[in-house]
Write a structure and sequence with these properties.
It is built from eight helices and 14 strands. The chain is of the alpha+beta class. The protein has a domain of 129 residues: Roll (T-fold). 42% of the residues are buried.
């Protein structure tokens, strides 16, 4: 998944601990093999290769993820859209490559979650337009940490943290103490803007400092507005707390695209979800459920 995986846990024996870590890593590799856009033999690559021509049979796991993706798209009025990949594939953040305006407009015409034709009865997906693509980068890591934590629970682990890049899920507390989750300063490496004492929750942060390049004074980062194919610039980072990692990661991208006011309004409408936002001026904003948290 192009990111570092971290597992912290308590177990009764060293053998139990190592077996648990190995099981987590095996699951991460399994999900990467299925959902990587860079592996030609992945299920995701098969969908992107064939779905414009035929209805592609889906694994039950992929079907559930696409169902969730379409629900997030409807809830966010398209701010979350896995078909953004038609535009997203035009960027190379390592090489500092961005598409020209004409190419981007053509690609954005192919971004439309309503053209992802999911047949739940048949368990298939078809693209309504040639040239469409999907990418699960908006919530695949959150799904992976959810799966990993379910494995740990089945193995009898009750206190753990699994992290995949900016996405973490906490099982229980830190044996009598909360997990202290730091939110980094988007512009000062090594500094933090808030520390949240947490337990039994998923935390996802999307920042404009993760994968980006700057050209002509403009920062192009990996979160894209599906409608424009460009990086939103009114926020520097969004951290979401939710019951599961799939939800927290998807909402971190969604709020980034919606911006402070629309994004916070969405968060306030969702039970059990909170947010910490750093705007482009460096100001810190908490949702109402986090009033009094953070240092």
């Amino acid at each position: 998944m192009g990111t570092a995986i971290q597992v912290d846990l308590w177990a009764d024996t060293a053998t139990q601990a190592q077996d648990a870590v190995n099981a987590v890593m095996a699951e991460m590799h399994r999900i990467d093999r299925a959902m990587s856009p860079h592996r030609p033999d992945s299920e995701l690559s098969r969908i992107n290769r064939d779905a414009a021509h035929t209805a592609v049979p889906l694994s039950p796991e992929m079907e559930r993820l696409i169902e969730h993706a379409l629900a997030f798209s409807e809830m966010s009025d398209g701010a979350f859209d896995i078909s953004y990949a038609a535009a997203g594939q035009l960027y190379d953040y390592r090489a500092g490559v961005a598409p020209d305006a004409s190419t981007l407009r053509t690609a954005c015409a192919l971004v439309n979650h309503r053209q992802l034709l999911l047949d739940q009865q048949a368990g298939t997906l078809r693209f309504g337009q040639p040239g469409m693509r999907i990418d699960l980068g908006g919530f695949a890591k959150g799904h992976a940490v959810d799966r990993a934590c379910r494995i740990l629970q089945r193995l009898g682990i009750r206190h753990a943290m699994v992290a995949a890049g900016g996405d973490s899920r906490l099982l229980g507390d830190k044996r009598g103490r909360p997990w202290n989750m730091a939110i980094r300063d988007p512009r000062r490496p090594g500094e933090v803007v808030a520390v949240l004492p947490l337990q039994d929750v998923s935390v996802s942060t999307s920042g404009d400092y993760e994968r980006y390049f700057e050209r002509d004074g403009v920062r192009h980062h990996h979160v894209l507005n599906p409608r424009t194919g460009e990086s939103p610039r009114s926020l520097h980072s969004v951290t979401i707390l939710a019951e599961d990692g799939l939800t927290s990661e998807a909402l971190s991208k969604t709020v980034f695209v919606l911006g402070l006011h629309r994004g916070m309004a969405l968060i306030e409408s969702l039970p059990g979800v909170d947010a910490v936002v750093v705007d482009a001026e460096g100001a810190l904003h908490f949702s109402s459920g986090l009033s009094g948290h953070g240092v």
